[in-house]
Amino acid sequence: MFLENTVNPKEQFGWIEVICGSMFSGKTEELIRRLKRAKFAKQKVEIFKPMVDKRYHEEMVVSHDANEIRSTPVPAAANIRLLADDCDVVGIDEAQFFDDEIVTVCNDLANKGIRVVVAGLDMDFKGNPFGPMPALMATAEYVTKVHAVCTRTGNLANYSFRKANNNKLVFLGETEEYEPLSRAAYYKAMLKEKVNAIEVTSEEVLPPQKKSND
């Protein structure tokens, strides 16, 4: 459960909050909720996202439920440091797509008294820790892991299974390309892919059949 920090005016340090999970788990929705509450409180809020993410809008951070908030697309983490110096709250979406400097940037901002709220995928489509997210989760004061619902079992899902035939690490997509799976469903799906790959390879290496003289 996430508990928002009680502000102590004597302590001039901020903090880092990380919202992580699989695709379709509500990460961006939760990020937008926290940032809108800060705006209602008349705090100066700036939101950033990687320039590569243009699925819904070039400038808006948009959740799968079409909830949105205006943001600034940036090509690299270093740009955030330059643009967020006088903010009360900084929001960062799709943090897994940023370079490793995002970890230093977030800590530098927090050390200046800024509240930093970060959302991102904790694992890639292969089930491995994704980019700078593990380091962000380790240095954050608060980590919230949200879950989707598995499309095959109905259980909680924490894996993003890629249905599209593409092995690039960064591959933007929606429900046509990805589906959230539970551990059991993900294991079965990955096992099926391996078996199919072995069968295809076996057929390719079979020698040509000799024609019968009969």
From TrEMBL:
Compartment annotation = Cytoplasm
Residue positions of the active site = 94 (proton acceptor)
Tell me where it mainly resides: cytoplasm
Binding positions for ATP?
Answer: 21-28, 93-96
Please give the catalytic activity noted in the UniProt record: thymidine + ATP = dTMP + ADP + H(+)
The UniProt family comment states: Belongs to the thymidine kinase family.
- Which residues, by range, are in coiled-coil regions? none
Q: So what EC number does this one have?
A: 2.7.1.21
Gene behind this protein: tdk
Query: Which positions does UniProt annotate for substrate binding?
Result: 170-173, 178
Q: What is the lineage of its organism?
A: Bacteria, Pseudomonadati, Bacteroidota, Flavobacteriia, Flavobacteriales
Gene Ontology biological-process annotations:
DNA biosynthetic process; thymidine metabolic process
A cellular component term from Gene Ontology for this protein is: cytosol
Provide this UniProt record's keywords sorted from A to Z: ATP-binding, Cytoplasm, DNA synthesis, Kinase, Nucleotide-binding, Transferase
Give the molecular function GO annotations. ATP binding; thymidine kinase activity
Protein's name in the database: Thymidine kinase
> Which is one Pfam family of this protein?
TK
- Quaternary structure? Homotetramer.
- SUPFAM superfamilies cross-referenced by the UniProt entry: Glucocorticoid receptor-like (DNA-binding domain), P-loop containing nucleoside triphosphate hydrolases
